[in-house]
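F.,

This is the one I mentioned.
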């Protein structure tokens, strides 16, 4: 360091946007520098650097997507457990509904509806929490990789996609508890202690 006969980098901007032409010119420049006794450690095109950055971000995005799917599945299992306990606690209520003429469909709809309410409330809370957390994450990642915060952009279509995924998970999580509630006979549910 602090030597006058070295440089850390040399940046050249080409007018021609063609990557093949840029590569040929880069090779010519490196050969010319070598011919003049200037050692070149490496040469990289900006497209190569961008590709590497996108690869790094791709790994990060894949990891975050996998984590969000795992969290959603755990949430679905928790919802299923909660709904199963709800069915057990409300067995007498189910028996009374059956005794006054409620059919299987009505009982399934009650438990599915409760599951959807819990699902939508959790979705709204998740969206509200995701806005500041996403901004914080883009700032941290930008500072870590590029020494400056990234521009924050929130994808509205991601909210719609996540709503669909969460509603599907909520529906799947309510199937078993709703079916077990619907399968209880009047006699079984009224005699439950």
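My design for it:
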């Amino acid at each position: 360091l602090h030597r006058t006969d070295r440089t850390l980098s040399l940046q050249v901007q080409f007018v021609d946007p063609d990557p093949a032409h840029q590569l040929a010119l880069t090779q010519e420049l490196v050969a010319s520098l070598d011919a003049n006794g200037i050692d070149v450690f490496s040469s990289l095109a900006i497209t190569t650097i961008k590709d590497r950055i996108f690869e790094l971000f791709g790994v990060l995005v894949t990891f975050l997507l996998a984590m969000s799917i795992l969290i959603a599945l755990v949430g679905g299992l928790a919802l299923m457990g909660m709904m199963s306990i709800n069915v057990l606690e409300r067995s007498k209520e189910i028996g009374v509904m059956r005794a006054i003429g409620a059919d299987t469909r009505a009982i399934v709809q009650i438990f599915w509806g409760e599951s959807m309410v819990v699902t939508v409330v959790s979705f709204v809370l998740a969206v509200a929490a995701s806005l500041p957390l996403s901004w914080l994450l883009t700032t941290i990642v930008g500072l870590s990789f590029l020494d400056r915060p990234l521009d924050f952009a929130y994808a509205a279509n991601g909210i719609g996609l996540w709503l669909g995924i969460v509603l599907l998970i909520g529906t799947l999580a309510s199937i078993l508890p709703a079916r077990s509630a619907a399968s209880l006979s009047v006699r079984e549910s009224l005699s439950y202690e």
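Residues 1-43 form one domain.

Talk soon.
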